[in-house]
Each structure stands twice: as C-alpha cells, then as structure tokens.
Design a protein that fits this description.
about 230 residues; alpha/beta; Rossmann fold; seven-stranded mixed sheet; two-stranded antiparallel ribbon; 9 strands; globular; AB_hydrolase_fold; hydrolase activity; PLipase/COase/thioEstase
Length: about 230
C-alpha cells in the first residue's frame, strides 16, 4: 500500500492542532495545488492543521498525480478506482489523526474533482463520522448500473456534507451535484449544496466562503458533541 505525503500548514494560532483539514486534489494535479486553500480558511479555523497529500499514482496524462486512472472509456473505472485508492487514503487519515492526537470528530475532508470522489467515498465508510466533508466540482461515485438506493448499505458513518459546483462545469457537468445529493438523501446523509453561477471546473470566491463557513460550523457541532 502506498504511503501518502504532501505539503502541510500548522495552525495559524501557533497552538497545538485542535482540528485537521485534509485537502484532496484532482486528476493531474498534486497537493501543492490545494494547500493554498488553507490560507483562505485559516482566519475561520486558527487552530486547524491542513495537509494536502499527493495522490499515489503518476497521472496517465504525463504530469501531476492521480488517485486512479481515468480514460473516460470504461464506465466502471471510477468505481474500481475509488475502491482501489480508498485504503491508502484511509491509512493516511488514521496516521495523521494518531500523530496529532485527534479524534474523528476533529477531522474534515475537502476534495476537488477526483479528490471529491475520494473524500465522499472514504468518509462515508469510515467507522466514525468526521466533522465535515466538502465536495468541490466532483461527484459521489456509485457502482455502475446501480441507483441512488445502492449507497445506503455501504454507509458506516454519517458526516455533514457540502457539495459545491460551477453551473458551467465542462469536465464534470453540474448534473453530478444533483445526482450526488439524491444518493446522499437516499442514504439519510445530510447534504447542503452551493451553485456558482458562470463558473466552470473550478472554485470561486462564493464556494470558498461557503466551504469555510461549513467547515467551521462542522467543527463547532462536533466539539459540542465531544
């Protein structure tokens, strides 16, 4: 199993981390592409550490990294991919929490595009719910040929989820947001969503703002529950 590494930022407050936000990049990128998001959210989360692991495989496009291969010719490749890459991400999350002395309720996942697929797939199958999951410009991956109802038996933990998407996304069409929300609802997973008008496959200021507020609220709720 590959061991993941990537850039990280320690808490802005200078204190020992009280939360951990893991940023999962998209296809053909690496952790350096997302770690800068931490600077946007540090004012809201001054005691949070941030880490953006590089995906385990070199990208088939010849640059960057990938969580799994995407040829867009095989309808089963996303499902196989999230299941194959999931254990390495799970192990990374466990190791990071142990190193920082944190619990599941002090963890949040943020994923962009293919990283969103990984964040949703792994978080719903972990033994305890994380504080929040933010999926940006991505989708919930279901087994090919199965409907939204197929998710519920696989769900082990129910974290709060925010889905954000550009309504002009040319890579993962915006319909993916609504299909993902439908599957989450069928599995009794609470989900909010945000549409960015006129935005393609990217993250605008509105999505960043909503995501930061959602992360802060998720950590606050989790802290109250203990």
């Amino acid at each position: 199993m590959p061991i993941l590494t990537g850039p990280r930022l320690m808490p802005r407050s200078g204190a020992r981390p009280r939360q951990l936000v893991v940023l999962l990049h998209g296809f053909g990128a690496d952790g350096n592409d997302l770690i800068d998001l931490a600077q946007e959210w540090q004012p809201l989360l001054p005691d949070a550490a941030f880490v953006a692991p590089h995906a385990p495989e070199p990208c088939i496009q010849g640059f960057g990294r990938q969580w799994f291969s995407l040829t867009f010719r095989d309808p089963h490749e996303r499902w196989r991919g999230v299941n194959r890459a999931g254990p390495a991400l799970d192990a990374f999350l466990d190791a990071e929490l142990e190193a920082l002395g944190l619990g599941a309720h002090q963890l949040a996942l943020v994923g962009f595009s293919q990283g969103c697929m990984m964040a949703l797939h792994v978080s719903l199958r972990r033994p305890a719910p994380v504080a929040a999951v933010v999926g940006l410009s991505g989708m919930l991956v279901l087994e090919e040929g199965k409907g939204p109802e197929s998710l519920k038996p696989a769900v082990a933990a129910v974290p709060p989820v925010l889905l954000a998407h550009g309504d002009q996304d040319e890579v993962i069409p915006v319909d993916a947001l609504f299909l993902s929300a439908e599957a989450l609802a069928a599995a009794d997973v609470p989900a909010e969503w945000h549409l960015s008008a006129g935005i393609g496959h990217g993250i605008d200021d509105g999505a960043l703002h909503h995501a930061g507020q959602f992360l802060a609220a998720g950590f606050a709720r989790a802290a109250r529950r203990g």
